[in-house]
Amino acid sequence: MMKGNWRQSASIILAAPRPVPTPRFAAPETGQEPFGGVAVRKETAPQTTRQPPVSDLLAFVVQRSSKARFMPRAFVFPGGVIERAVDCDRFWADRQREVEGVSSDGAWKQRLEQVTSFPQPRPPIYDEYRHNDAVMPAEWALRVCAARELYEECGIVPVVDVKTGEAKVLSVAELDGGHGELALFQNAQTVARDNATAFVDLFRRSERYALNFTALVEWSNWLTPRLGVYNRRFDTIFFLLTVNDCPKHKLCDEELQGAQWTSPVNILREGYYGSAPVPPPQVYELSRLARFETCGELEEFAAARAARAGMVRYCPQMIFTSDAVRVTLFPGDDHYELGTKENPPEMIEERKLDMSADELRQQASLLHRAEFRSLDGQERGQTCPWTRWRIYAGSFKDGSDHIAPISEP
């Protein structure tokens, strides 16, 4: 298969139950209401007739800087490109062996084989980091990448207490005045932003805490489509991490201009009505999260799905119709081109058709697509192209045994 000109990356979907509000916190004038001291954004967009289930599930999203070269101002999940020298370091596997208490080399070899023995199908991203003599499985390296980016960007990191075995999430914003090893975590974030090796050095120095990357559950895989608007492409694997509460964040101001814990439907509505860009992968995944009423249901589903089914890489293909609709095709749709060996599906360029989105849809029997309609009925360029969408995925099955997204917020 032709090797693409994209970069591999990992992202983390952080989810938590909605905190119970307490009377001692008054609602500020900013339109945000603190639940137990955590700012949770209120719904600002009009209601629609199609309502997803009432949910206590919150997701953590960050907003990219307006100066970002790739998707400025967009609401996304924390993440970034893999750093081979750091994320593939054998230290992580050695420390994990210590945490799990595996002394036998034979038993540890079986453990590593178990890590890579996931159900089929498997996305190509793992092959980039898989070597016969590797002591750090690709499945672990990409999880380390996602956890590292969460720490660098937001000051949040999942750890396990080596002495007690307790899993927890450390928040730099909540470690003010910390001493000993907690001070290490507080001080290393700024350094790690400019030098990723500081992240692995942090855990080398920590005797009490180990990185809890195995808590991250495989969720989905997206490849940036081939678009004339953006020449930067990323093959990104998304992991899910559920936590008991909403840790506070300390942002990297150079990359991000904001972050919030919010309901999936709420952030979807902000994108739907044009308040801020929400790219298609986030639209799709947030629409999946909106199916769950509780964080516990999400956690249970994700673990069971990852154990019984594989994962398919989604590389959207774009069609611009005569009525100014951006039709985003996903694998399995009748109009999704399978390509050839010389020109595989991920290399298919965007197309323009002299027909409406409705006419195009009526020609297909299997639908797996999203239709984005601009607010004013015209092409909006790069300002906010992803608005007023509807997702068609009800009857589609791709082998990943995943949950279908809601059609619209």
UniProtKB/TrEMBL annotation:
Domain of life assignment: Eukaryota
Transmembrane segments: none
InterPro entries, per database record: NUDIX_hydrolase-like_dom_sf (IPR015797), NUDT19 (IPR039121)
Sorted UniProt keywords: Hydrolase, Magnesium, Manganese, Metal-binding
GO cellular component terms attached to this protein's record: mitochondrion
Family (UniProt): Belongs to the Nudix hydrolase family.
Protein name in the entry: Nudix hydrolase domain-containing protein
